[in-house]
Structures are given as structure tokens and as C-alpha cells.
Amino acid sequence: MSSSFTRIPGFCPDCGSILPSLQNKGGVTCYSCSRIFSEDAEEVFGTSKVKYTIVFNSREAKKKNIKEDKRQKTNEVQEEGPVVERKCPKCGNDKMSYATLQLRSADEGQTVFYTCTKCKYKESENS
Ligand SMILES: [Zn+2]
Ligand SMILES: [Zn+2]
Hints:
With about 130 residues, the protein is of the alpha+beta class. It has 2 domains: about 5-75, no CATH class; about 80-125, N-terminal domain of TfIIb (Single Sheet), CATH 2.20.25. The chain has 2 helices and 6 strands. Strands 3-4-5-6 form a 4-stranded antiparallel beta sheet, with no helix packed on it. A two-stranded antiparallel sheet has the order 1-2. Strand 1 and strand 2 form a beta hairpin. The longest helix is centred in the middle third of the chain and has 33 residues, at about 45-80. The chain binds zinc ion (ZN) (2 copies). The site of one zinc ion (ZN) has 8 residues, from loops.
């Protein structure tokens, strides 16, 4: 058995529990069913188990990417709100998009954020 696989934790073929990392010498003992594996146990530390680990990781990574995509889209919607006719005090453009934000309680009203569609200048106004 080559040393490149000896530190990868395997799964117990008896109960499916993840096994502790294999030390340099000796085998490992399953925490759940107390089965003892030798350091070169092919069924636990063989290449097929390594492949399984890689597949599992890439699936997790995909999930994470989907989550990040969603977050970016949400931000975009808030930035590019409905466009109203409003003169930008900076560049004189007469169109600005707006987004509203409710602050703390309803009594305090909401703040409207305007963003110039041309130069992206931002200003806010309390209503
Ligand atoms: Zn076990
Ligand atoms: Zn502007």
C-alpha cells in the first residue's frame, strides 16, 4: 500500500460510520462498532472509497455555487429598481432607479434610495 492513501479517513463497511484518520503505524478502530482495521485494509482505504469522497465534495461545492448565484441576483434586483423621472444632481441625467428600505418600525417610515441610471450617483430620501 502506498503512503499517499494511508491518511485518508475511510468508512466502516460494517456500520457506515466514518473512521478516524489512519495513523502511521497500526490500524484504526471504528468508534461505533469497535471493529479493528489494519492499516492496509483495502476495503476501507482502497481507491474506490477515495473516489466516493471526491464525488461527495463536488456535490457540496455545486450547492454552494447555487446559493451564491441566488444572493447575487437578489442584490441586482435591489440595485436596478423601477426607474422614475428624477434629475440626477450630479450629471443632470433625468432618470433614476429607486429602491425602498423599511427602517426598524413602521412609524419611522421608509427610506427611498435613488440611483442615477447614468453615473450611478446615489442619494436617499425619507418619506
Ligand atoms: Zn463500524
Ligand atoms: Zn448621474
